[in-house]
Amino acid sequence: MLLWDRIREYDMDHRKKKIGILTFQRAVNYGASLQMYALQKTVKELGAEAEIIDYDCLRISDCYQAFPLRALVHPRLFLHAVLNYKEQSHRNQKFEQFEKKHMTFSEKLDKKALPHVADRYDAYIVGSDQVWNPLITGGDSAYFLDFVKDRQKKFAYAASFGVSSWPVGYPSAGKMLEDFRAISTREKTWEGIVRAVTEKMPLLSVSVDPVFLLGRAIWQHFVKPATRMFAALSDVVLEMGVVVYGAGYGEGWNVMHKRAETKEARDEMRGSKYV
Q1: What is the distance between the terminal CA atoms of the chain, rounded to a whole angstrom?
Q2: For the chain, N or C: smaller number of CB within 10 Å?
Q3: From CA 77, how far away is CA 145, in angstroms rounded?
Q4: Is the pLDDT of residue 204 over 70?
Q5: Confidence (pLDDT) at 108
Q6: Which domains does the chain have, with CATH numbers?
Q7: If DSSP codes are grouped into helix, strand and coil, which group holds residue 194?
């Protein structure tokens, strides 16, 4: 991994590195949670200690509250929050349980407290996800690791802007990007844009979303077995010598139609919405 090579370049004392990861750890959605898990697990598998920096960006965390503060000034959002309060609370609880079980976090930190961890880690990684999308973060400079003063410690992995150009009215990203040791973007288009807006070019590359760094077996560990009803019905069908068709994942995680003549093949359709 290019990023890991760069981290090792400046610190060759062979002790176990401690890496701080800054991402959307408070975003209650599957994409954010799984990419965070995948990046931390990959860093650990590469031989380092890894910790999610539990930064509370209020603009993000409020979006996923069971009753967000912004609902107080948006009538439609207010009604939506009231109607979905119980469901959202339950969803938040499930995500919190998953993250506590499978990930390692720092203490909770607000903007003022971030400088306190500026020297805690041997390297800092921001990413993946749309950590540089100002429409999501409000242009929060913490996601450019501005609290870390040592440029040699600052890295970005598969970071995404999520927009086609930097919106007018936000601080320029160019100077903040120049302060990184190495950057990888998630989209090829933004590799060119980063080159265009920076004068002092950091090492730059394009990387896949961290969920693709882990093997299929790891992700299947989290997939629930087929539901009882589906299992019972398909068991009867298979015992009759009839074939079961459904959807499943192929190589490279592309969704494809699948044919099952055995229970083992049937179990590869876990999560399929039709059979």
Answers
A1: 39
A2: N
A3: 32
A4: yes
A5: 94
A6: 2-213 (3.40.50), 223-269 (no CATH)
A7: helix
